Amino acid sequence: MPPLHSAMLQKFQETYINRGRLLIKCPDQPGIVAAVSRFLFEHGANIMESGQYSTDPAGGTFTLRIEFDCPRLKEKLPNLHKDFTAIAERLSMEWQLNSVTELKKTAIFVSKEPHCLHEILWAWQSGEIMTDIALVISNHNDCREIAESLGIPFHHIPASKEVRKEAEERQLSLLKQHGIDLIILARYMQILTPNFVSSHPDQIINIHHSFLPAFVGARPYERAFERGVKLIGATSHYVTNDLDEGPIIEQGIERVTHHANVDELKRIGRSIERSVLARAVKWHLEDRVIVHENKTVVFS
User: Has residue 212 got a pLDDT over 60?
Assistant: First the structure.
């Protein structure tokens, strides 16, 4: 592990040793916030940050994200889970409660272009994102040195239509072996099968190099140039079996003029892709994203 990241991680764990997060999605109804607040108070927790959103107060879906501080959280966590279950069942909640310092394990998938991989690794090294990057998987060897220079295991698994089944079996085996919580597609230029996607629902984040829903699929910059667009962008979204149509987490744009050729559009686009993907990953790792149908609620 790089020294800078090690120092950042130690400081993070010391600072947030007693910090927890609670995420909730349930049918909207009176008394949700009161019940949750009372529960945290009765267990000695102090709410540090809270955000809520209802899709429709009259019969919609209610979402809630709370960060709280609780002395001796690690010791109390099993009882917090046990005691909250009764509230969750009564209010029909989907929920998760965890310690901020229990880092999610991440796998990065990449093909040849390294710019998104560089951005994620820089954010990881500097402490901008807190995660355990367990491995990098690629269908090419171009990015091997980047990963291994930071002590991250690199696995070259050739992938194509002809060997897709065998490749994904190897990939899924590695993900299971490492207990992966999040898969980042950092310009991984392969389409994942329904079997792969269904094994990690809402746990695969992709970056698409265009402003979805425009220019879905291949060669978006060439098609954008031919259309004479004045705005280009990038979209980060969760992967579903509908190509490039999963729940959107973050988007970014930049204005361009008729002077920009395809290469210039790609250069500008790479910069947008890096920042958009990094923000989406950071928000997911901080449990700021709740998926509702084919949309997301992103708590700032």
Answer: no
